[in-house]
Amino acid sequence: MRTDIASQPLTIFRKDYIAPGFWVDTVEMGFDLDPIATHVATRMTMRRNHDSSEKNLVLFGETIKLLQLRMNGVNLKKSAYSIADGKLTILNAPDVVTLEIETVIAAGKNTSMSGLYVSNGNFFTQCEAEGFRKITYYPDRPDVMGTFTIMLRGDKKKYPVLLSNGNLIAEGDLGDGRHYATWEDPFKKPSYLFALVAGKLVCQEEKYKLKSGRKVLLQVWVEAGNLDKTQHAMDSLKNSIRWDEERFGLELDLDRFMIVATSDFNMGAMENKGLNIFNTKYVLANPSIATDVDYAGIESVVGHEYFHNWTGNRVTCRDWFQLSLKEGLTVFRDQEFSADLVGTETGRAVKRIEDVRVLRQVQFSEDAGPMAHPVRPDSFVEINNFYTVTIYEKGAEVVRMYYTLLGHDGFRKGMDLYFKRHDGQAVACDDFRAAMADSSGHDLAQFERWYSQAGTPRVKAETSYDADAKIYQITLSQTCPDTPGQSKKLPFHIPVAIGLLGADGKDLKLQLEGQTTTSNNTLVLELTAESQTFRFTGITQKPTPSILRNFSAPVVLEYAYTDEELGHLLANDSDPFNRWEAGQRLATRRLVKLTNAVQKGEELELDAMFIEALRATLNDTTLDPSFREVVLTLPSEAMIAEEFAVVDPQSIHTARQFVRASLAQHLKSDLLSAYENNLTPGKYSPDAVSAAKRGLKNVALAYLLAWPDDATFMLAKTQFDEAQNMTDRLAALSGLSNFSGSAKNTKAAAQSLQKFYKDFKNEALVIDKWFMLQASAYTCDVAKVRELMKHSAFTLSNPNRARSLIFNFCNANPARFHAADGSGYALWAELVIALNKLNPQVAARLARSLDRWKKYPQNLQAHMKAALQKVAETKKLSKDVLEVVSKALAS
């Protein structure tokens, strides 16, 4: 590991925040677009911030060439300013400044996809978090907000489309084969929201009438040949606009709203004011290339980025430590949007289940590792490393707890006050909490700990029943494990939603001792101390508790449920989330027991109680197919791993495969019936009802292939050959890719995989799926990954393609990645180093695959440590990657 002081990047601390020395009022920029040398002329008006202790005028700049610098009309000599460590500092600047800067950028060589870069001959930008400083020298921080006017100039044939933020105010020819377009954004924004797009693009556009009666122009821009794949994105945008008007009273504030898709993008999408730039993965869709999951993902991400217009753009972050202020809140909003569009109670519950699965599998793991950090971090080395599931998904859970505590109307009042107080400002997480508290009168002082304390709290529940007094008592206690830099944790403010089920499976009426109000099904208890006892009166029978309904807080619940109690909840709970949760607890118990049995070499057996519980759920046609699908889906191998102090990936995989095969064997006729009863003939539609049927049908197919014979193989092969949509085609191919049977069928499966490539070789997003299926297949090993890396369709420079193969192998195929010989880790190190040269952000995300290396057996730890050290000792290692591997090695 590198220890030389000069190589260690600077750590930034939240406590060291200093307000900027100067504010920016207006920004005018002119771009002469050329991939070899784009010239940028910037003029900004600035004024001193007398409340700041920073007296100098400080601008940030990276990887750009400064041509000229003028202040108040006078060219500055080099002795009047200094450039060091990515900062341009002007001493003794006057209180009012007009600064003119000329820079030049080699956008065509920018493989980091941060700042201004070129993709497939087109120009794009990505300025969050600190990409704008790669365009010009600027006070590139979120609390500096100004109004921007942008002129773009370029070759008319090469770049017929010239786009930037806000409203188009002028365009025309320049008379030399070039043309221009001038854009004005009337709203103040920080530089991270700046955007520029130029190139050969086509668009689908519609005029849309807002609730107020004002008409706006909506556009979805894509490369030629993709226009037939934009309707769903357009529909999702219109649904997002309508939902935000109806749910929160928030209206689109510009004359137009644009979405642009590019295949070279580090993230899912970016909420630049009025000009959202998207990864093609979250825009392009039609039945032949997109699955039901893709359609839902597009709807969610389009909604997320649109909702940022208010929660992120109109009100933004004071500093990057407050990132969850916009991201956690907007994830909550997009989750509610997607749930509302489904429209049914079961549909909302399934959406909730899907979100919680991500939280538990990825965020709980992050909380338990060396990269653990609070929702509002205290420090960072590279801000791009903190675009994490803690900031986003746990941040959304924190917002949801406000919603749970205050109710629908109370939360809306808090949102209204938040916008009234802070529109046009850069603020902090505490400002949002204050708006919620002040609007409701609810004491939320202790709630601050959700922002400042890292880790996943554990809530232990103990119950007792006094039949004579008709009192049911529940004692809740909370703890939180140590995390890096934090040991003693103070009690959180935890909303615990609870219901009590009688012997008939019905909810009992609830009344707390000393209170006059009753609830017909659910009460929200507020756990604020280390331990509290709550007593329910008038309980005439010993109930089964349904604790943490709808997952009312991001905690681990510890309660000694019996199998009988869990079976009762699975069959009867009125809360769909806890009904699913009961099934997950039953499955997890068995998977843990079987994993231990594998390690001991004992005979494996799956008990009848569990099999029959799942049979009953599978065959209960009163339940929505989408709910039956999630109940039938076993906890992932990553989730099972969280149950062990030392992880044995091969044993976990063997145990889980045994359960899948056993269920397939015992439920074969039931699974075949579910398959036949949930066919969706006719024209494809991504609607919730059709998608739910396909989901259940394809889960049934996956199980049937876990206990393979010629008949089930032909069922999958026929579905693949005859499928009229990508959902069914990909589900069948996934099963075939993991098929282990006769040599004849294995050969036929391989032929199907090649046919899929041949049919879709010109569809980049589908070829991503082709790589992904192979990388995550049980039969894939390091040699296979290396073989696929040599395929003509693979490139490491495209983030989507790298993620489809490399990330899926490292993160979604644990049994193969964690090979005993350490070959998976050697491949990982090689690729982290290679990606570091191309794209540090992507490299750092891959580096996270080994950050919990100490959770594995000693023989694997030795290989992992060697791989981590190899990366850490690499010359010219980016601070993105160095931060991750340094924290991992120091853990």
Automatic annotation (TrEMBL):
This is Aminopeptidase N. Aminopeptidase N is involved in the degradation of intracellular peptides generated by protein breakdown during normal growth as well as in response to nutrient starvation. The lineage of its organism: Bacteria, Pseudomonadati, Pseudomonadota, Betaproteobacteria, Burkholderiales. Residues 233-450 form the Peptidase M1 membrane alanine aminopeptidase domain. Keywords: Aminopeptidase, Hydrolase, Metal-binding, Metalloprotease, Protease, Zinc. One of its GO terms (biological process) is proteolysis. One of its GO terms (molecular function) is alanyl aminopeptidase activity. It catalyses: Release of an N-terminal amino acid, Xaa-|-Yaa- from a peptide, amide or arylamide. Xaa is preferably Ala, but may be most amino acids including Pro (slow action). When a terminal hydrophobic residue is followed by a prolyl residue, the two may be released as an intact Xaa-Pro dipeptide. InterPro entries: Aminopeptidase_N-like_N (IPR045357), Aminopeptidase_N-like_N_sf (IPR042097), PepN_Ig-like_sf (IPR038438), Peptidase_M1 (IPR001930), Peptidase_M1_dom (IPR014782), Peptidase_M1_pepN (IPR012779), Peptidase_M1_pepN_C (IPR024601), Peptidase_M1_pepN_C_sf (IPR037144). Residues 563-890 form the Peptidase M1 alanyl aminopeptidase C-terminal domain. Its EC number is 3.4.11.2. It holds the Pfam family DUF3458_C. It comes from Undibacterium parvum. Its cofactor is Zn(2+).
